[in-house]
């Protein structure tokens, strides 16, 4: 059983439908008591980092997730991935769940190479570069396009957590992970066949745990 | 590298796709889900559903259409047409739409852009602009209500304002080019793309594959939308993408 953490930020319908297409049982909940019994969690999210952390703290889910990931797997998607890091500069500086080392920063909108302006949000299909092709999340996958939509990205000095990256004027961590904690900056539920296969890899990983 | 997007647009009335449906060989070509999956199979990068229902019943049906599409489709899609309130936006996004597109309602109530962006993030809010060249002032005017009503807004200024209010993307339709099949409006597309920091979708005027190339190169668009040439099978998404790849454009 997979738990989708519903803390009030995000479009859970598409994700739940993607799990349905993979014949995966799931529960959508914001109650730690309900989520505790699951084999693995997915933390989705769109919107602002600060609001998301406030809701997770308010609902007691931050503390719950910290305990949960001691033993069981978690996959953060988009904002849900960013929440796994230590802090974000979105709005005012806000502390994250700090499962992964690094901070979340806004795209500057100005290329460091050419000095030219570029568009923010990073929106659309971008190619991935696999840094750790042997990661369970990339099992049997070839680098492909994935669908991104975000204005902030994770900056990390810890290259050991970079599983795949994308190039959008900055090196954008696209798939991150440490142990059984994972995150994708892109939306696997919106990334066609590739995204579906990556989600399935996570579900398979959960089953093997 | 970030790919340029090709976006088929489907007109939906009372829950059924209208226009061009007889030309695509499907079991039930009026079914939004079947058409969505057809274009998905062709390699569409996103879809836009434009609700042209005149009645409230038709509008309410749109939420069910969105749910049905989101259950099957694993690429992003935008819903536009008749969205007047934050409640409308919430209902469509919760039903599985990735973005909503605001047109007349954004002009009449610019605060709706901000309300939607604050609630769901600016990436969900597309500002659709219908623009027409005004020879008297040599500028592009914004029209609303399906092109029926002229406003005194300048298209470039309105695009900038919409982005400052929270729009995450601009869907620019040239009324001069729309239906002409002689290519996108490159001048205005480029001007708006250079004026705002968010992605711009060019719309109106697609007639052949090379028009898309022009939209991305001369027009500096990030994505291009077309309806009739895909519906009437004058070309296909796959053919357009093959052409663009040969021309060296980043295409998925």
UniProtKB/TrEMBL annotation, chain B:
Query: Per the UniProt entry, what species is this protein from, by scientific name?
Result: Sporolactobacillus putidus
The protein's matches in PANTHER family, at most eight in alphabetical order, are given as: IMIDAZOLE GLYCEROL PHOSPHATE SYNTHASE HISHF, IMIDAZOLE GLYCEROL PHOSPHATE SYNTHASE SUBUNIT HISF/H IGP SYNTHASE SUBUNIT HISF/H
- Which biological process annotations from GO are given for this protein? L-histidine biosynthetic process
Annotated compartments:
Cytoplasm
- Assembly information from the UniProt record: Heterodimer of HisH and HisF.
Provide one Gene Ontology cellular component. cytoplasm
Tell me which stretches of the chain form a coiled coil. Answer: none
Entry annotated with the keyword Magnesium = no
The family classification in the record reads:
Belongs to the HisA/HisF family.
Pathway note: Amino-acid biosynthesis; L-histidine biosynthesis; L-histidine from 5-phospho-alpha-D-ribose 1-diphosphate: step 5/9
Q: What EC number(s) does the entry state? A: 4.3.2.10
Q: Which reaction does it catalyse?
A: 5-[(5-phospho-1-deoxy-D-ribulos-1-ylimino)methylamino]-1-(5-phospho-beta-D-ribosyl)imidazole-4-carboxamide + L-glutamine = D-erythro-1-(imidazol-4-yl)glycerol 3-phosphate + 5-amino-1-(5-phospho-beta-D-ribosyl)imidazole-4-carboxamide + L-glutamate + H(+)
Task: Name any one GO molecular function.
Answer: imidazoleglycerol-phosphate synthase activity
Sum up the protein's function in the record's words.
IGPS catalyzes the conversion of PRFAR and glutamine to IGP, AICAR and glutamate. The HisF subunit catalyzes the cyclization activity that produces IGP and AICAR from PRFAR using the ammonia provided by the HisH subunit.
Return the SUPFAM superfamilies for the record.
Answer: Ribulose-phoshate binding barrel (SSF51366)
The name of this protein is: Imidazole glycerol phosphate synthase subunit HisF
In terms of InterPro entries, this protein maps to: Aldolase_TIM, His_biosynth, HisF, IGPS_HisA/HisF, RibuloseP-bd_barrel
Which keywords, in A-to-Z order, does the entry hold? Amino-acid biosynthesis, Cytoplasm, Histidine biosynthesis, Lyase
Question: What positions constitute the catalytic site?
Answer: 11, 130
